[in-house]
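Much of the work behind modern protein science is quiet bookkeeping, done one molecule at a time. The fold becomes a row of whole numbers, each drawn from a learned catalogue of backbone shapes. The protein below has been through that process, and both of its lines are reproduced in full.
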Amino acid sequence: MTPKPNPTIVIIPGAWHPASFYSELVSNLQRAGYSAITATYPSSASQTPQTATCELDAIAIRQQILPLIEDHQKDLLLFCHSYGGIPCGGAATGLSAQARLRDGKAGGIIGLVYMSAFIVPEGSSLRDFLGGKHAPYLVPDNPSPGMSICSPAIETLFHDIDPETAAHLSGSLIPHAMLAFESPAPAQAWTENAYDGKRGFLRLTQDRALPTVVQDMFVQSSAVTWDIKDVDAGHDAHISRLAEVCEAVIGFVGSFHEG
């Protein structure tokens, strides 16, 4: 049997995180033989925070991945981080490679990997899902109405990264529209049977932004099965444990293909 070609890995960033934070992950995956790209979405550094919903983020990501699937018949793996889980799930609906193959179409999404990412059901907002309050490190209406920043960033996101790098990362964070956290999630692909055996979750055991109890709550409340792998790292494990995260993603590709 001819081995399947490696999928393209689409990285969906977390809130406040610019695409540059994932550049080393992209490079490592490319050196391992995988095409990798980082998606963007409009609630990040939004100029119109009053309309920057998580659904619009999902639509924007879908517009970036559809040409890869429909025009180039690419297989994709979606890797999402933190807030990126919500628009990732929305962008991926109806695009599984398994479902498309049944319809006689090539290309599609072979699986979903969530790294300490939000698993929020359709119709719920992240804020509602977390009990009606924003996370304590979210500073609202900063630097302008409707936007937010993360503070203290080093203690929350980068505590397991060397101080010089952590300071640089903290200074490179970008504001995020609050409405993305307050608007209802669109329909989520992880609910689809086509992703049975093709859902991966990287649980970050030192994460201070989303402690393991919160990560476990997301997984358990989803009522579907996830393949969980632990990484002994803080919230930005793709920086502090780059090789381990890269290895885990590649491992998921193999298990998704087998499934």
